[in-house]
Amino acid sequence: MRKFFILIILLVSGLSVLSAQELNFTVKVNIQRLLTADPAVFNGLEQSLKEFVNSSKWTEDEFRPEERIKGNILLTINGEATDKSQKTIPNVYTAELAIQASRPIFGSSKETTLFNFIDREITFKYEQFQPLQFSKTLFNDNLSQVVAFYIHIILGMDYDSFALNGGSDHFQAAQNIVNVAQSAAAVQGRGWSSIEGNNRNRFWIVENWLSPRMKPMRELQYVYHRLGLDQMSQDPAKGRSIISKTLENARKSFDTYPNTILMQLFLSAKSKEIMEIFRMGTPDEKDRVADVMSRIDPTNANNYRQLRQ
């Protein structure tokens, strides 16, 4: 379904049909917080990371340049890692990874955010000009594993947005990365275990996507995007109605399993967009959506109440 959707865009626009890799990400490495280590160590890391993300082959599908998933990665190096006695661990660093990805909206020049997350639990070993290498079966380095994990999560979300459960293979690939990391004696840092991160880490992100109990969230990913947003250019009222109903179904999932990481990821990506969509809605739509969103996102309840004004 994803390929069919993009093919329609290409036929309409007359864009190139040349094949390319799957991702088109802007990649930045920020070392401004690095106070003690030699910043020259990271010369070349930004380019290596960019090539790792954009030039690796992540799927078996062929992507045209115009099909490539757009996004941004910002790796912020916090400093040198220390052991329990606060001694510096040679060539090991702590970092944060901010990652965002988007998807086109059918019949529009606009894009919608799919994923928007900051992983604050990254520790990795790195020496100057060290290549980034990823293996499906072997643990090479933590940075490569972490980035590959999020790439497969984004691919899974993208494919899910075009076909119901279309991203399962990529979520399973992300699960395999977690399994490999857990079994590696040399793994650094947190984020791979079920007992860390207050149910907000990498383990729980992919666990949620694959869990049968989170089936309504998988359905939300498809219905919201393919049946809702992609309808807006042709029939805004129909698109809003579909989105309103799928948000109500998502609320049922929230009532059963409140504050899951999937719901937090959805709200991080969609909260403002939902406000924009329903500003043009009927009074009844505004009331229903304000009620639903205030329940599943109580910290922003005041914002949703503005829909009624």
TrEMBL record:
InterPro entries named among the record's database cross-references: DUF4835 (IPR032274)
Pfam families, A to Z: DUF4835
Protein name per Swiss-Prot or TrEMBL: DUF4835 domain-containing protein
Organism: Haliscomenobacter hydrossis (strain ATCC 27775 / DSM 1100 / LMG 10767 / O)
